[in-house]
Amino acid sequence: xxYNFISQHKEKIKGIFYVVxxxxxxxxxxxxxxxxxxNSLYFYAFSTIVQGFVALVAxxxxxxxxxxxxxxxxxxxxxxxxxAQVDHYQGPxxxxxxxxxxMVACEEIIKSNEDKGHKDYIKKIYQKMQETxxxxxxxxxxxxxxxxxxxxxxxxALVGLLFAPILIKYFYIGGxxxxxxxFISFYILIQAxxxxxxxxxxxxxxxx
Length: 208
Prior knowledge:
Blueprint: H1 2-8, H2 10-31, H3 39-81, H4 83-90, H5 99-111, H6 119-162, H7 164-169, H8 171-199
Helix pairs in contact: 2-8, 3-5, 3-6, 3-8, 4-5, 5-6, 6-8
């Protein structure tokens, strides 16, 4: 029940989480001004963000690459499984097709009026190839989107690290800059969890 509730209200829960994190950050900024005047705070905080997110991007990149390799293997198997059937329509050259070419060939056969048998099987394999290709492309798109946001946040942290001596002198500017960086970091971590969940095929929906 609880897993289904989380799945159904996932966006609302995420929104509440972001608001709570933002409130915690703002309140900590207001009630702990002395913390933001510590000389070492900015150096430790920004350097931790830089190192952490570079490592996170590398880890998720490896996860997505592994996922795409599995998808490529699945596409190859599907392509091989339908070679003989496509051969009836497009001749022996079909056995040299790449998975992408085989998917195009299957689509052409399905749309054509010609019927030499096995069309139902070809359609079934074509649909599986479409799903696999779509999953592969989605994993790639999500990784690119995540990497862009993560490197942007890492860039902000690098700027903060370079200008840490100045940020220490100007308390409000430095504090706000650091807190924004931290808030974006929390957002990216949530996105990272979403990416891992979708890439590994995990779903919160459980029918009880």
